[in-house]
Predict the structure of Alanine--glyoxylate aminotransferase family protein.
Amino acid sequence: MGPGPVNAHPRVLRAMSADLLGQFDPEMTAYMNQVMALYRPVFGTRNRWTFLVDGTARAAIEAALVSLIAPGDVVLIVNFGRFGLLLREICERIGAVIETVDAPWGEIVPMEAIAAAIERTGPKVVAAVHGDTSTTMAQPLAGLGALCRAAGALSYVDATATIGGMAIETDLWGVDVVTGGLQKCLGGPSGSAPITISDRAAEHIAARRHVEKGIVRDDISNGTGARIGSNYFDLAMVMDYWSEKRLNHHTEATTMLYGARECARVVLGEGLEARFERHRRAGASVVAGARAMGLTVFGDDAYRMTNVTGILIPDGVDGEAVRRRMREDFEIEIGAAFGPLQGRIWRIGAMGYNAMKHKVAITLGALEAVLRAEGFATPAGAGVDAALEAWRA
Ligand SMILES: *Cc1c(COP(=O)(O)O)cnc(C)c1O
């Protein structure tokens, strides 16, 4: 019950035990086309270019940034937690000129501040995180795309922690590239990273391989000229494989594709609205249960992610001892924290297959027993009762 990875849905694990197919096998390429169709509603988009990057969520983040950004481009990063810092680090490696608009951990960046920062910095790309699990905050993104388009900038969003759990509205937000991962609310293992790319971003990515830097030399795969940045994460080449051209790039990760496909089938089978509601109830139950136990919930209530909750470690309680007892006595893993929040909060996730009433109730019951054993007085049964009541509300 941490902030991911979490237990995978049994159907996903079963799908991943199927035998392998060659990467150009018609059955395999049919599955690829299905994956593209399945992930469009999951991303809230009609983007043609909706597919998988092979690797963990960070692979898609890096693929997006390295394919969109050239050295020297100004990038504006919306930074309110650890994953904003990751965007920054990747952009630094690319050689971008970094600008940031920041919020303290536990808050979000107001859209007016983003608008002012775009105005001030004139970025080529604006990069943001949707839900930053490090702080448990969800950044509102409505209006971001319009601001970027008006300023001639492309936009990127890391939605790893929210996809499949909170609404991802790629088209309504008007953002160009959004990426995810399986191991949070999609209920799969880490190792495949869904991505969606607007036509205008795809054109930018495809065009820049020929012209940028003015270098002309033969490319080993199709003779179209120089490319820059990464080979493995060159989305132009990966799109060539996912297109009807089926140009060879790397060997598709067959088993991960089966898993990603099944994740989306489970999500759409449940229904997106029902699924978001289940996560909302789970998050509200963790919050209510924690408060009933006399604990303090971290961060701004108005912008809380529904699928992970930060709880302040009470004074005098050894946070790591609590996590250890949770694992050893109850087989339940809850999350620690990073950076400025390290040693200050626990993070309890209720993601995907774990966003269930009984799992939340069992976790809070276990936490109560562990806290009592660690010397923190909490009213017997209060957390579980409040959680169940919040679930019903
Ligand atoms: C968990 C998480 C990631 C994780 O990336 P991996 O490469 O799968 O470890 C990235 N971004 C956000 C916002 C996350 O919450």
User: Anything to note?
Assistant: Residues 71 and 93 are 9 Å apart (CA to CA).
